[in-house]
Each structure stands twice: as structure tokens, then as C-alpha cells.
# Entry
Amino acid sequence: MSDKPNITILNVDDHDDSRYAVSEIVRHEGFGVMEAASGAEALKLVKENPDLVLLDVKLPDINGFEVCRRIKADPATSLIPVLLLSATYLDDQSRVKGLESGADGYLRQPIAPLVLIAYVKSLLRVRQAEEALAASKFYTESIIQNLLDTLVVVDAEGKIQTVNPATCDLLGYTEQELIGQPIDIIFAADTLFKGTRMKELIEEGSVREYDMTYQTKSGEKIPVCFSGSVMYETRGQKSEDRGQRTDETRDTKYERRIIGIVGIARDMREIKRLMQKEKELAAAAAAAAATEKKRAAELEKAYSELKETQAQLIQMEKLAAVGQLGAGVAHEINNPIAIITSAAQHLLKKLGDKEISKIKTADLVDAVNAFKKIAEEGGRCGRITSRILQFSSQKAPKMELVDINKAAEEILSIVAHNLSLRKIGIKKKLAHDLPKIDGDSDQLKQAFLNMILNAQHAMPNGGELKVETLYNFEDRILEIKFADTGTGIADEIRSKIFDPFFSTGKVGEGTGLGLSVSYGIIKAHNGSIDVESVMGKGTTFTIKLPLGPKGGGDERQ
# Structure
């Protein structure tokens, strides 16, 4: 309320000159002003909730006393400070009548500007304090009303002063039946509020998680866990040394007086029932432990043997797959090796045993080109063998939180130039509200790259690649779609596209491992790959990935 531009004052006076003079004083101080020339107009404008009302007593329709009374009687406007002003009603009786009508101040006119502003600021501070007190009271009462545990406040004599609805619900009393009653009414046995226990409570100042028993109105006994704290009123009294003092030090003596005790208790019936159930379950588990121990050992041994057998079968399947297409792989590697061999022979022929000074520039150029070819074809061999090794020994994913959009963007930035050279446009539609997924970033990027390269091969004459991400909130599944406008996949071979070494390309144009590796990566992430294709129109691969145990939550891009 100290921010003056946000403070509005309603100035009510039927005399134009007087109203103008007061409004100018208020405006000069930086406050906003609303004006009214009658009581009826004032009662209408006060509903706009000004911060303060300057109210002339003598008005043509409703006098200021009655206007003030109505403002204070309305709960919506009762907290608005009202300062009565009068140049006519100056006697003490009028002043008393004004204050009894609810006015927060009564001043005679004419008023010195400094005095008027001082009163205005004082009343605004009072209103601010009242509003803060009302808000604090409402906040405290809301906490008490919504507290799930029982709350009981007693005075120094042990009589109940406050209870919350949870207390009444638990004990079966109404609030009126409990207020003013001794605290013993709700306890089934000796309590903390008597004898030596009361003395201990006062000395300690509080107790925590004390086992006690409540007794309901019907006589039912309820075990509760009670925590209580003593409330004190501290009074200070300063006393000055009567002798000579070398400084301004004063001794202060404080007196503490108990004004009550506040206690909170939690119904322990359900907890005790669960604890008993837990004991029973523990006993049953202990009884079965001996039998299960032997069975667990047998299962562990069987599992170990099964795991070993499964690993052997997987390796055998990989070896079988490698054997089926061994000739094709050999041809893949033989082509670049033949080029490397030819380039090396060419180098020997051009250079031979010649001295460096006798080598011609043209021969050096040919030599450099041959070296480039050797490097290029050597790299090709490396890529082929890398894919074969990747297929034959898949590593377990290194799980972490992965931003799928970021991974897709990184891969697209790498291949963008290559796709552009092949007249393939890229269209992105990446959702902005994707949660992060639990996965291996490098492996997922490899899978995405394989999908893009597969689309590139399907569009030899150019086309469009659409990459889209979206999130299925109901199933907590994230989808990544790669849609091309290529040649499509025939129905008769669609079931084989994820088989190792399967390829529709010519021998020497690829290993046929790209989609197989991608399939293995997605399966390792508990996901799936769906395929939709129309011959001559294109193919859409949809990767579906669950969020996993760490994914989702509040993590958003």
C-alpha cells in the first residue's frame, strides 16, 4: 500500500471549492482521486474499493454520519478507512457521533495540508496492518480447518479453547460441546496435563510422538501419537543501575507466563493395524524362507545354465546369418581391396626405383590420386567391417536421459548437405512438449542415421524426407517417424527388411545391416519399429519408444 500511484482516495464534498482544494492536496502527494458530491454518489463509488474515504459530514442528501455507518456495515467495504471532515459540526458531541458511526478519524475544516496528509498516511498504514492481520488470521484458520491430524488448544487451566474439524470428526463431539471443557474429557486415562507429567512438559517445553489414548463421545478408545508444545507470554522489564554507569547498558529481566498448550495428535489405529499385519507377514515370510532358500539356489543354477545356453544360441544364429551371406560380404570387401591393389601397382609402375629428382610432376599427380583412392577404399573397408562387427556383438545400451529432438537435429545436420546434393529435401515437424527418454544417445542416433540413409537409397532421383516427433500421453510412448517419397517396399519382401544382410541393392552397394542394426537398437530400448509403404509413393518407418523408469516427469524441452 506504500506504492502511491496504486492508492486511490474517494473525496466526498458537495462544496465544489472545498472538494477541489482537498483533491489537489491529495493529488500533489501522488495519490489517485475519485470525487463525489453527495452521499448516494459516495455509496456507489465506494463499491470500487478505494483505499480511503475523505467524507464531509454535511451533505445534501445523506449526512456523512449515515454514509460512514453504511460503509462500515457492509462487509465488502468495512475495512476501508473513513476520515470525517467538517467545517460546521465542530462540537464534541458531533465528534463522538462521527466516531461511533465507525469513522477512523474526525477533523475540522479548513485543514492544513501537512496535517491532512499525515492523517491519510496514518490511516493507510492502519488499513494495511488490518488487511495483513485479516489475511494472517484467514491463513491460520485455513491451516487449522484443513489439518488432517487433530488439533487441541487449552488455556493455562487446562480448558479447551480451540479444536479443528478433524478433532470433532474423530471424537464425535461438536465444537460447541468441547469448547470450555477440561482437557480430560477427550482422554481415556492419565494424561500429560496432570501431576508429574505436566511438570515434565512445562520443564521441557514440548513433547514429541507421545503414545496416548483418546476417548470418543461414545466411549470408544482410540490410540493416538501426541505432540504438544507449551505457549508462553514473555514480559520484559528494564531496570537501570542507580549507581554510576560508564555506558548505556541496561539490564533486562524477562518473566515467562504459561498461557496454554497446543497439541496435535494422529490417529494410530490404521498404522497399528498395518504394523500388526506387517508382523504377521514377516512371520509367514520367515516360515517360508527355509524352503525358498533351497528352491532359489536351484532356480539360480538353472537360470545361469539357461543364460549360457541362450548366449550360445544367439551366437550360433549370428554365425549362421554371417555364413548365409558370406559370399556377398566377401564381394563387398574384395571390390575396394582390388582397387587398393591396383592403385598400389600403379604407384610402383610410375615411381619404381627412380630417384626423387627424376620423378615427373605428372607422375606425382598420379601418385597423389592413387593415394587418395587407397585412403578412400580403405575407409570403405573399415565401414563395412565396422557394421559387421556392430551386428555380431551388440553392446548393452548406456542409459541416460535423452532429448530425442536434439538427437534427430544433430543427425539431420550431419546428412543435410549429402541429401541436398541428391536433391532430397528435408521437412521437420518436431513436437515442442516432448519429455526426455531413458536411452543410449549414441545408439539412438545410429538408428536414426540408418533410417535416413535407407530413405536416401529409396530416392535415387531425389524427393522429400519428413522427420516428425510426437508424444502419446496416454500410453507414455514417444514416436519418431521417417517418411520418404521413394520407390516403396513390395509386400512380398516387407517381412524380410529387418533380416541381417537382406538388401534390395546390387552386390557391392551395401551390407544389408543398416535396418537390422536399427531394429536391434530399438528392441534393446524396449521399443518397436512399424512400417507402412505404398509402391511408387514412399515408405514411413515409425519408431516407438517408452519413456523408461527415468524418463518423463517434469522434464520438458
